[in-house]
Amino acid sequence: MKKTDLELIAESVRGQTPAFDTLVMRYQDRLFNALVQIVRDREEARDVAQETFVTAWSKLSSFRGDAEFYSWLFRVAYNTVISRRRKKRVATVTLTPPDQTGLSFPEDGRAPSPGDRLERQERQQMVHSALDELPEEFRSVLVLKEIENFKYEEIAQILDLPLGTIRSRIHRARILLREKLTRLLDEQEHPGPINSRAANS
Length: 201
Description:
With 201 residues, the protein is mainly alpha-helical.
């Protein structure tokens, strides 16, 4: 019978490393994919994931079970990203390319034509461009809410911010994203005039 996270954690705290290995196997792929979306570098994401599990092992006894284990693990990972970023003096964190963001568009039931696929790619690229323009504080909450599907309360725990702040940021982030998408769509449908110098050349 498959053991629960809490059972594996209890065994791990007692020094049974195979139990922690099972936890690692259970969550390493999901954590790695989420980290790729945040740091936009697979090698960096792999390093952060490894460091996260090392830290999690050393701090496992502090896990109280008042949240999902993955939520707790993601907070450790997020703090690791922040710590490494401070050390490297990296100013911003962006999302992954559009084919890895997890954002998709609804299907209408029919097989997509090459034109449909191209249009969907263009829309995904547009979403990515709009996301990339958002301030980091808004990008982060959208990744956690819309891509990782965390609850508001979990995001508040991960980012160590009041629940009201999280709700406000997500609301504001969605408005900003919609505004930027509207602008990008308008620019696509109504491109500006050709530069006169280029036109005369």
